[in-house]
Amino acid sequence: MSTQTRVQRLRESMKAAGLDAMFVSAPLNVYYLSDFRCRSWSLCQPLNDPEGFVVVESDRLTFLCDDRYDPSAARKAGFDHGRIAAPAGAANIAAELKRLCRPSWKALGFEAASLLHADAVGLMEALPDVRWKPADELLVRQRIIKDAAELDLLRRAARVTDEAYAHAVKTLRVGMSEADLAGEINHYLRTHSEGLAFDTIVAFGPAAAAPHYHPDPSHKLKKGDLVLMDFGGVVEGYHGDMTRVVFMGRADARQREVYEAVLGAQEACLKGLRAGMTEEAGDALARGYLERKGMADRFIHGTGHGVGLAIHEPPRLKTSFTTVLEPGMVVTVEPGLYYEGWGGVRIEDVAIITKDGIENITRSPKQLTEIAC
Ligand code: GLY
Ligand code: MN
Ligand code: MN
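^ thats the input. predicted complex w/ manganese (II) ion below
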């Protein structure tokens, strides 16, 4: 889907919400609508060092940036260029908004979750005659359903992530450190995609008991360790996310038991997920499986999360989350079990919700893998 179609959808929801204009500041939303890629992919842009903003009206599209940035991608996507003075700050940005402001602007939507408080106050003080209305929900609701172009990029991100895993398994050696293995994965992702979806997690043995562990250069791989790897590549801003666990040498009985339980929970969820169920019902597919085995007390996080331009975004497969899943939503399915002093197992794929189930876009093998050493 083109940016024009995305803008058109946003215009429809702005109309329904009674907005005459919308000021878009979240970097991912600026990219989604205009193809302008902020260098910083964070949640918000501080107005004293901004990159680019989008102003959407029913009959006009404006892209705001200062001379340090190139507006040509947004121009190609149909946006007029509104120049802001550098260094910016709320007053300079408000000056450009005042130039654009027309008497018809009564309600101006903005993203409350993507502006620093002081910046929002500064803009509102500079334009006191329009009603600033938080409108974050409009693009959250739109982005939760991926269009065909986005699904294709997510498939490509999953593919390069699969390839990085195949590469990583080939490099496994007793004596290498967690940082060495993370370095192999990171080098592959940086040279075959736009980079890392998040800081790669590599944990050996007991270290895998912490789901968001950071690889340690002094922690060396031993025969008998389990090896947890969680990472993803990025393609045109869209993220991959995969976790696999393999065993250095023969897996012992406990390692097998935990691995098979997590794999069973993951497969139960992948098999049962479908449009029409709530986020928490999706979570319950994996959690219920582990409950029946009496192991769910060590399943200490949600089953999954949406993934797209952000690595973590709605929907969430989590207890007490009630959004109904729809075709075009994309979620990870990543149950895990964690035992302090022993380690942890998590297995993670990315699934597209379809009309009649899911399409699993992660293809790496999941049968219990023992590395000869
Ligand atoms: N470690 C990030 C995730 O899998 O959600
Ligand atoms: Mn992950
Ligand atoms: Mn994940």
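The pocket of manganese (II) ion (ligand 3) is lined by residues 241, 305, 332, 334, 348 (CB under 6 Å).
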